């Protein structure tokens, strides 16, 4: 590994300027020096922003898993690749070496091939945070099957929608999962989902909880006996640079989730490069990211980024509050974690508890601590800095998205002076810009605008599975010639970026991206509901929570409110998942609408926030009187 690492702040600017003057040369060198290729590329980058068409390293041939595992075997065969820390602290942690990981992934890859999975086939993975999840993901990538990991908190209908959208041939799940003191019946959810998924031929089931589950003859098989029969050697598929690597669904502003497609070589180069630089990873470090592999953070910074660097990465099955609020800190102490990467919502929930939970444990191993997923508020930033980082481990506040594949804006530890709530500066090679309402680029500092990226980078998503038009419209049409992030940001007097939040109909709840449209669709399916509008409002722990304004078909049904509230939330749980439940529900007789029938969410947002001061121009409303009613009924 020889990525150039910037040594000080002055050098960052020099390096950055060079990277954007000659981006092709910049990425060419990184790709050339740090990976094993079967064949080199003809061109570093070809692109057309209008058509949203991007090709990185075309002509190259590579396998990302060979780069994650095989090439480390000679030097790091006995090094721990994965530390598995189980939900229950009394269960022993597992240390999986690179050699063992090679064997497990090879066996799994052979099983997949034997079961008829070929390059280009889609495989849905619905597993808890156990080593098998990593093994299955890597096995898919090794044989060129496209993995679609669905977070194991999604409901049966959400799983089904994702399976149907990309036509998965196989589902890999487990007999259940542990989460704190609960067990989750994953196989039951898959069975329910598969009632509507005709493309799925086979289901492989890993054992975790030993729950008594039903196996469907001819479709379902236990994984372990198949693995026991498989050989521990596997010839990896030779992939083209732009061959699909995975699909990962993210919420959009319509009901249908977007299957973001990432491809092979660019994603590999970008996640490896960003991991090394942002976490200042060194050979004997132990890195821990607390995300779930079901989200992009887990894909890029639990699996691919760390393994590409030959790192030791922790996979944690549990939750921060089980068996007590000291669990994170206990695990850091136990495994001598050097880099710790988590979400503001987790920090806020732990900061509410006594800080003695932290101080009981020895955190001196930590060097760098990170934050991701949503803006980190000032109070949480300071708590993290004081109690966890002890004011010596820099906080990397990393801004990025499922669509960007890897981190885009972040301090470089020991290089960029941090500033609370600021993601600070773009990484070398990344060109953020702020745009005004007239679609002009805003120059200078101390400005606010919509955040766009004006030049391609290797980790970017290439399309939305099956809907390139939607990809173009969502990301490349609002500001022609630029990638639109959907986020607003400000640039301070020295050029540091602070992300202020979404400017579209996506609300980030506990770090999870939730589109309001699919939640409204789910609520509207309840037999008593006529119409609904969901907005976010600030919440101490979750960052944002959801507030629902609901019109019932029958005004009289208000009397049963208690039951209805529960039912509506159950409805959301079963359509999307418990993460999308509403914190507050207000029954209303109408919603503020423009003459063209569009709900004025701006007004609803203000009411939900409890800010009744200035609703702006309401003269275009069809029914201005409704605002007063809603205001008076605020819950
Ligand atoms: C938000 C997660 C502020 C942002 C990696 C973005 C952040 C969305 C930060 C993407 C941060 C992520 N500061 N906001 N450091 N990181 N976000 O696709 O609104 O789950 O657009 O990817 O999270 O969420 P996603």
UniProtKB/TrEMBL annotation:
<dbReference type="InterPro" id="IPR011904">
    <property type="entry name" value="Ac_CoA_lig"/>
</dbReference>
<feature type="domain" description="AMP-dependent synthetase/ligase">
    <location>
        <begin position="70"/>
        <end position="463"/>
    </location>
</feature>
<feature type="domain" description="Acetyl-coenzyme A synthetase N-terminal">
    <location>
        <begin position="12"/>
        <end position="68"/>
    </location>
</feature>
<feature type="domain" description="AMP-binding enzyme C-terminal">
    <location>
        <begin position="519"/>
        <end position="598"/>
    </location>
</feature>
<dbReference type="InterPro" id="IPR025110">
    <property type="entry name" value="AMP-bd_C"/>
</dbReference>
<protein>
    <recommendedName>
        <fullName>Acetate--CoA ligase</fullName>
        <ecNumber>6.2.1.1</ecNumber>
    </recommendedName>
</protein>
<comment type="similarity">
    <text>Belongs to the ATP-dependent AMP-binding enzyme family.</text>
</comment>
<dbReference type="InterPro" id="IPR000873">
    <property type="entry name" value="AMP-dep_synth/lig_dom"/>
</dbReference>
<dbReference type="Pfam" id="PF00501">
    <property type="entry name" value="AMP-binding"/>
</dbReference>
<dbReference type="GO" id="GO:0016208">
    <property type="term" value="F:AMP binding"/>
</dbReference>
<dbReference type="GO" id="GO:0003987">
    <property type="term" value="F:acetate-CoA ligase activity"/>
</dbReference>
<keyword id="KW-0007">Acetylation</keyword>
<dbReference type="Pfam" id="PF16177">
    <property type="entry name" value="ACAS_N"/>
</dbReference>
<keyword id="KW-0067">ATP-binding</keyword>
<dbReference type="InterPro" id="IPR032387">
    <property type="entry name" value="ACAS_N"/>
</dbReference>
<dbReference type="InterPro" id="IPR045851">
    <property type="entry name" value="AMP-bd_C_sf"/>
</dbReference>
<dbReference type="GO" id="GO:0005524">
    <property type="term" value="F:ATP binding"/>
</dbReference>
<dbReference type="InterPro" id="IPR042099">
    <property type="entry name" value="ANL_N_sf"/>
</dbReference>
<keyword id="KW-0436">Ligase</keyword>
<dbReference type="GO" id="GO:0019427">
    <property type="term" value="P:acetyl-CoA biosynthetic process from acetate"/>
</dbReference>
<dbReference type="Pfam" id="PF13193">
    <property type="entry name" value="AMP-binding_C"/>
</dbReference>
<dbReference type="InterPro" id="IPR020845">
    <property type="entry name" value="AMP-binding_CS"/>
</dbReference>
<keyword id="KW-0547">Nucleotide-binding</keyword>
């Amino acid at each position: 590994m020889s990525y150039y690492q910037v040594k000080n702040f002055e050098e960052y600017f020099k390096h950055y300027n060079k990277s954007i003057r000659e981006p092709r040369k910049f990425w060419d060198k990184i790709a050339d020096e740090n990976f094993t290729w079967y064949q080199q590329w003809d061109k570093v980058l070809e692109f057309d922003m209008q058509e949203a068409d991007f090709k990185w390293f075309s002509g190259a041939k590579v396998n990302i898993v060979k780069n994650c595992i095989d090439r480390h075997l000679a030097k790091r065969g006995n090094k721990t690749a994965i530390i598995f820390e189980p939900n229950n602290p009394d269960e022993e942690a597992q240390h999986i070496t690179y050699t063992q990981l090679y064997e497990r992934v090879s066996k799994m890859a052979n099983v997949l091939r034997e079961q008829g999975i070929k390059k280009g086939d889609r495989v849905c993975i619905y597993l808890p945070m156990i080593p098998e999840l990593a093994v299955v993901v890597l096995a898919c990538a090794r044989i060129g099957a496209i993995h679609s990991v669905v977070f194991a908190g999604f409901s049966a209908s959400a799983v089904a929608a994702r399976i149907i959208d990309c036509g998965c041939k196989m589902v890999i799940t487990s007999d259940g999962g542990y989460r704190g003191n609960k067990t989750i019946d994953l196989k039951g959810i898959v069975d329910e989902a598969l009632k509507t998924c005709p493309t799925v031929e086979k289901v492989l089931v890993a054992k975790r909880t030993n729950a008594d589950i039903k196996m469907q003859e001819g479709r379902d098989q236990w994984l372990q006996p198949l693995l026991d029969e498989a050989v521990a050697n596997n010839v990896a598929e030779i992939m083209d640079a732009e061959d699909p690597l995975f699909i990962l669904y993210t919420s959009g502003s319509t009901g249908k989730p977007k299957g973001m497609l990432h491809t092979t070589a660019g994603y590999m180069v970008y996640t490896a490069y960003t991991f090394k630089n942002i976490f200042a990873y060194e050979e004997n470090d132990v890195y821990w990211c607390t995300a779930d592999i079901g989200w992009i953070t887990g894909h890029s910074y639990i699996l691919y980024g760390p393994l590409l660097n030959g790192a030791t990465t922790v996979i944690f099955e549990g939750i921060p509050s089980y068996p007590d609020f000291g669990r994170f800190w206990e695990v850091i102490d136990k495994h001598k974690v050097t880099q710790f990467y988590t979400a503001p919502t987790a920090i806020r929930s732990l900061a509410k508890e006594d800080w003695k939970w932290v101080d009981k444990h020895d955190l001196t191993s930590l060097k760098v601590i990170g934050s991701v997923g949503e803006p980190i508020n000032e109070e949480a930033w300071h708590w993290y800095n004081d109690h966890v980082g002890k004011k010596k481990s820099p906080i990397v506040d990393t801004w990025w998205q499922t669509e960007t594949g890897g981190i885009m804006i972040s301090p470089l530890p020991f290089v960029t002076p941090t500033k609370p709530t600021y993601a600070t500066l773009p990484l070398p090679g990344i060109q953020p810009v702020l745009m005004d309402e007239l679609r002009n680029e805003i120059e200078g500092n101390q400005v606010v605008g919509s955040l766009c990226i004006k030049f391609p980078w290797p980790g970017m998503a290439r399309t939305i599975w099956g809907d390139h038009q939607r990809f173009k419209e969502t990301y490349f049409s609002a500001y022609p010639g630029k990638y639109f992030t959907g986020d607003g940001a400000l640039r301070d007097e020295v050029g540091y970026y602070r992300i202020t939040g979404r400017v579209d109909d996506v609300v980030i709840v506990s770090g999870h991206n939730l589109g309001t449209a699919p939640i409204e669709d789910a609520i509207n399916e309840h037999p008593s509901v006529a119409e609904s509008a969901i907005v976010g409002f600030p919440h101490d722990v979750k960052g944002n929570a959801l507030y629902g304004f609901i019109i019932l078909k029958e005004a009289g049904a208000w009397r049963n409110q208690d039951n209805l509230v529960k039912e509506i939330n159950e409805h959301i749980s079963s359509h999307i998942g418990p993460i999308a439940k509403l914190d507050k529900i207000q029954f209303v007789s109408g919603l503020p609408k423009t003459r063209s029938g569009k709900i004025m969410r701006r007004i609803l947002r203000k009411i939900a926030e409890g800010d009744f001061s200035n609703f702006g121009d309401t003269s275009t409303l069809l029914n201005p009187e409704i605002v007063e009613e809603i205001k008076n009924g605020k819950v």
